[in-house]
Write a structure and sequence with these properties.
Elements: H1 2-13, H2 31-34, E1 52-63, E2 73-90, H3 96-104, E3 114-124, H4 143-161, E4 168-173, H5 180-193, E5 199-204, H6 214-238, E6 243-249, H7 253-266, H8 272-279, E7 281-287, H9 293-301, E8 310-315, H10 320-329, H11 343-350, E9 355-359, H12 361-367, H13 375-378, H14 380-390, E10 402-403, E11 410-411, H15 416-421
Parallel strand pairs: 1-5, 4-5, 4-6, 6-7, 7-8, 8-9, 9-11
Antiparallel strand pairs: 1-2, 2-3, 10-11
Helix pairs in contact: 1-10, 6-7
């Protein structure tokens, strides 16, 4: 028991994806952008050429009370999904041209500050309110205005989606021990580097943002699965999104996987093509997934991957945070499964039709952060690969990766950057 508490304390103190000291700053430029192969600032609609961005919020956190200081949503788990909008500014005091230069400039000094600038609470997603015959309406949830408020939220979302030529929605799902403002800013950064098309939503599940909150966070993440499933059902019915993409990190990954698994099981009579037409799930990024390896295989056996067009899993042997999580749970984590697969598991991975497993151990060892858990936005090789997958729709081989048949994973080869230079520019154009 003492050993497990020691592991938990170590894990809690070393998974600070976004909770470091000082102001939040724009992520390091992906290599594919720094090298001039793609430019996410080119072709941005005139109305989007500023540091301001709108992040749609769907959160199971309890709202802060009047008079509370700090963030508008607490770290406590609630009974309903709250809808809102947050304003995020990238690059205080910078013109669009200056922000664009900093975005593509690589190791520039004084990276632009990313900060949340206001939050508007809109209402609740009524479909998540417990049925009246099961339980009374939770405190603070107004019956009639809630339905109208959700309609207004979807109308605002559809307005953003229709403001550019691409009606794509990117949903960002954060990990353990992060706060609301940082997560909202990270969602805006993902949207910014994806070319500012369509709209972005942060699924802000109730992370405790506490050094000893790992156990509570894992429980809250499991609780959030129903909320995400219902949100996806409503987005399918009420939004104009042509495709719904995901970028999930760490403890947020099993929320996405299990929500898609539940939808697959609920609609067992639909084919993959019918599921795609109904829910319009596009590309799914699972970065450093803090998820039991067998939990993932169970979801795969249940067909969760029938909903997305494609899935990219990013894992690293060097992920120190997931090494500790594996010790704590006495089971391998998906995000650190490179070289740990059984022969059967490896054959399953090799046989995936729509899922790519990417080993990022080599670039992480060369260019990563302290514990190797936040590489999805800190490592320019990995963020390059995610960008080419998420925004440009390229497959692993088209992105310059090579397959290791012994592990089942795709890898960054020697001379990876030279391979990026060889990308065919038209093939790497944005997916419209």
């Amino acid at each position: 028991m003492r050993a497990r508490w020691g592991i938990l304390l170590s894990l809690a103190s070393c998974v600070p994806a976004g909770c470091g000291s000082g102001p939040q700053r724009l992520m390091r430029t992906p290599s594919v952008v720094e090298m001039g192969i793609v430019d996410p600032t080119a072709g941005v609609a005139e109305s989007r050429r500023s540091g301001e961005s709108v992040v749609f919020i769907a959160s199971g956190r309890v709202p802060a009370r009047d008079g509370d200081k700090g963030e508008p949503l607490t770290t406590e788990r609630g009974h309903v999904l709250h809808l809102g909008l947050a304003g995020v500014h990238l690059g205080e005091g910078l013109s669009w041209d200056e922000l664009a230069s900093a975005t593509i400039g690589g190791k520039h000094t004084g990276k632009p500050v990313v900060g949340m600038r206001g939050y508007e609470a809109v209402g609740v997603l009524w479909e998540t309110v417990p049925p009246a015959d099961l339980a009374p309406i939770p405190d603070g949830v107004l019956e009639d205005p809630s339905r109208e408020a959700a309609d207004r939220w979807f109308a605002r979302l559809n307005g953003e989606l229709n403001a550019t030529g691409t009606r794509d929605l990117v949903i960002y799902v954060h990990g353990f021990n992060t706060d609301f403002a940082v997560n909202t800013g990270m969602a805006a950064e993902v949207w910014h580097y994806a070319g500012r098309r369509g709209a972005v939503l942060s699924f802000a599940w109730p992370s405790r943002h506490h050094l000893l909150g790992y156990g509570a966070d894992k429980a809250n993440a499991a609780y959030a699965v129903r909320h995400l499933r219902i949100l996806l059902e409503q987005l399918a019915e009420r939004s104009d999104a042509e495709r719904i993409h995901f970028v999930a990190h760490s403890a947020g990954c099993p929320i996405v996987v299990d929500a898609l698994r539940e939808l697959r099981l609920q609609h067992g009579g639909l084919s993959r093509e019918e599921l795609g037409a109904r829910f319009r799930i596009g590309r799914v990024v699972l970065a450093a997934p803090d998820m039991d390896l067998m939990q993932f295989f169970n979801a795969a056996l249940d067909g969760f991957d029938d909903l997305p067009e494609r899935i990219a899993i990013y894992a690293s042997r060097e992920d120190g945070a997931l090494r500790l999580a594996s010790l704590l749970f006495e089971a391998d984590r998906l995000g650190r499964s490179v070289g740990h697969l059984t022969a059967w598991e490896r054959e399953v991975v090799l046989g995936f039709d729509h899922t790519e497993a990417v080993d990022v151990s080599n670039p992480e060892d060369l260019l990563g952060d302290f514990l190797g858990h936040g590489y999805y936005h800190r490592d320019p090789w990995v963020s390059s690969d995610i960008l080419l997958f998420l925004a440009y729709g390229l497959r692993a081989a088209e992105r310059g990766l090579v397959r290791n048949l012994e592990t089942g994973f795709w890898e960054f080869p020697e001379g990876y950057l030279d391979g990026l230079r060889a990308l065919d520019a038209p093939a790497a154009g944005p997916v419209e």
